[in-house]
Amino acid sequence: MVGGAEFAFFCHQVADLADPHRRFRLSSSDLALINPNTRTAPVFRSRRDAELTKAVYRRVPVLLSKGPPERNPWGVSFRQGLFNMTSDSHLFRSRAELESDAWALDGNAFVRGQERMLPLYEAKMVHQFDHRWAGWTGAAIADLDAQAKSDPSTLPLPRYWVAEPEVATRLPDRPAWLLGYRRICRSTDERSVIPFVVPRYAAGDSIFLIQSAVSPVSVAVLGAALCSFALDFFARRRSAAATSTSSSPSSSRCCRRRPMTRPPPGTPSVGWTTGWPAGCWN
Q1: How far lies 83's CA from each of 122, 194, 217, in Å?
Q2: By the 8 A CB rule, do 120 and 92 touch?
């Protein structure tokens, strides 16, 4: 691609092609810079968006580059939930099944003697900064209203529960919380990447979990970076439509297939300090 190729997206009329602000040029090195793992073209609405993105990616590395050489400063790995909603369904129990078998509800878990059945979280139950976004009532799911959330003891109920030993075998030596994000996203919504922290319970395959080898404090900093406006700006340049299929770049799977740019751990990221990593702020 000598000199690069010219691109234009979201053109609805032929006249849009004549707008110099909508047309921009990307070279093969630009594609390798922005999408080192797939070398696929990002979706930019304007020349300004393209130039801004290239400028940032030259300064800040991506979360994970498969290389060679591989670069993974956060030590991250990705996992599509803990349980497949189809192939693992034999492990799931409904509220009616548990109550008929002498289990008692305790918060949003079920207990019977020393045994526990843990709630199975789905992406639609959680949202950015909110692990109590919605819960199931019978066959329907509904958002928790402000009155319910004003009581800290109110917890969302899932559709299904899973035995605690099953969860423990899939989460050895993990902290009491999990960092994840929704599988499905759209570039037309108010937010594309929707990250969250959830309790160390069961997670369905609509939740992508991010596991990291760094300290829990650094993982919390990574979660904060995922929530930033800047990261979502770049994510929206990658997403063209809603999808839940792994073959399409418009799914939130772009976080692992076409990773977002993030400063490495320990980077001083607070503009009015010198030498203090972001994890020192609390």
Answers
A1: 10, 20, 26
A2: yes
Output the CA angle 117-201-228, nearest 5 degrees. Answer: 160
Task: Let me know: does 105 contact 161? Beta carbons within 8 Å.
Answer: no
Look at 118-132, 154-168, 224-238 and tell me which has the smallest mean pLDDT.
224-238
Tokens of 68: 């060679």
pLDDT digits (tens, 9 = 90+) for 165-219: 999 999 877 678 899 999 887 666 788 889 999 999 999 999 999 988 888 888 8
- What average pLDDT is seen over the chain? 83
Two tokens, residue 218: 């650094």
Q: Phi and psi of 69, rounded to 5°?
A: -80, 150
pLDDT in tens, 215-259: 888 888 889 989 999 888 888 776 554 443 333 333 344 454 445
Distances, alpha carbon 244 to alpha carbons 62, 137, 214, in Å: 23, 25, 29
Query: Under a CB-based contact definition with an 8 Å cutoff, are residues 262 and 222 in contact?
Result: yes
Residue for token digits 């993990």?
174
Return the DSSP state at 190: S
Q: Are strands 177-182 and 5-7 parallel, antiparallel or unpaired?
A: unpaired
Containing 187, the helix (H) or strand (E) segment is none
Neighbours of 169 (CB within 10 A): 10
